[in-house]
Amino acid sequence: MRRFLAIAMLALAAVWMSGCGAPATNAPANTNTNANSKPVAAAPTADALLDMEKKAQEAYTRADGAYFEGMLSDKAVMTMNGVPRGKADIVNSIKTAKCEGVTVSLGEPQVTKINDDTYAFTYKNDSKGKCTENGKTMDFMPMRASTVWVRNGEKWQAVWHNENPIMTPAGEKKDDKAAGESKKEDKVAPAEPKKEDKAAEPKKEEAKKDEKATNSSANSTTAATEPAKLTPSVNTDALAKTHAAGWEAFKSKDAKFFDTTLASTFSGVAPDGSVYASRDAAIKEWTGTGTMKCEGITKTTFTDAFAQAISPTVEILFGKGNADGTCDGHKNGDLWQTAVYVKEGDAWKLAYMFEQMPHSGGM
User: Fold this and answer.
1) For the chain, what are the domain ranges?
2) What are the tens digits of pLDDT across the range 111-166?
3) Angle at 144 between CA 295 and CA 179, to 5 degrees
């Protein structure tokens, strides 16, 4: 159930680099003369969401944690190093960002309605510049970004975000060469110690003792502030079972399964940064009638499942899929997936999915 590409991904910081949009107040959807009724935000347009994403990108470059305190839903969830983290951890990570030379450029917006109170937004991020977060530096490159937005009274808030590098037709990132040059610089050998350094060896032992004491204190502080793990939704096992069945349907090219389990407005993002523009387009890709050709798939798995309830009828499922065989001539392997499920009647249906190759930034 995915687009397999045997391409090494550029390590990304585990928090959005293009930002999730601002909680700008929209005009109320309805004017109600009942004094007890509260106004609600109107359904978002592509232009409105794109503007909110741009403002969030700009806030990110300022490491403006206070801004994200307001624009993130209290149920916001992202994965950091493969571990689901909540709003407080996301904001704290953003506060460490240090950016330079950033110019924001966003385009190609696509809106997917999950339900009346939940929308998925996909767009292209062509921003330029460089940011360092939690000790990791990334030069911006063309990315396909996704954000899930939820209605909270008079405003829309972001509940999840991620991005994929957009690959060139040849399957290589445009900046691979530059990245390789950077890696070469990292391998420069340390300078030879000066002769007078030997006289300072006794002091080195004292320095080590002080360093050990300092590290011990730092470790205690780190342990005290270790991010709290989120509790998975009670629906995690059921959603994981449904998603695993989707992988089996991918193996057997079972179009009927997808026709039953995909929401009518389904869309998503493949690991190469391309877009599943519609439900029918995704089904064609996953059943061998589209552009992707897969062979020799005899086994699939879906593990490391974790679901977060966004509302009584919407949940976000994280997990790792895997299949043997090949697709488009490349050997298949692990694939991180973020799947948004919506409840229609008694059934949970897949409404949006973001697929990503494993890398040090998490899912």
Assistant:
1) 46-169, 236-356
2) 999 999 999 999 999 999 999 988 889 899 999 999 999 999 999 999 999 999 99
3) 85
**Which CATH class, in words, describes the domain spanning 236-356?**
alpha beta
Taking phi over 0 as left and psi of -120 to 50 as alpha, with beta for the rest, 13 belongs to beta
Q: Does domain 46-169 have CATH number 3.40.190.10?
A: no
Cα 17 from Cα 131, distance rounded (Å) = 8
Find where tokens 């009518």 sit.
Answer: 264
Residues 6+ apart with CB under 8 A from 213: none
Secondary structure (3-state) at 358? coil
pLDDT tens-digit map of 236-278 = 999 999 999 999 999 999 999 999 999 999 999 999 999 998 9
Distance in angstroms (rounded) separating the CA atoms of residues 221 and 226? 9
pLDDT at 25: 40
* Between 330 and 209, the higher pLDDT residue: 330
Put residue 337 in one of left, alpha, beta given phi > 0 → left and psi -120 to 50 → alpha. beta
Q: Is the pLDDT of residue 351 over 50?
A: yes
CB 272 within 8 A of CB 171: yes
Q: Which of 87, 91, 57, 230 is nearest to 152 (CA)?
A: 87
- Tokens coding 317: 């499922």
Closest C-alpha to 109, from 122, 95, 126: 122
Taking a C-beta distance cutoff of 8 angstroms, is the pair 170, 330 a contact? no
The alpha carbons of the chain give a radius of gyration, in whole angstroms, of 23
The overall average pLDDT reported for the chain is: 80
Buried b (16+ CB within 10 A) or exposed e, 95-128: eebebeebebebeebbbbbbbebbbbbbbbbbbe
Note the pLDDT of residue 359: 65
pTM across the whole model:
0.76
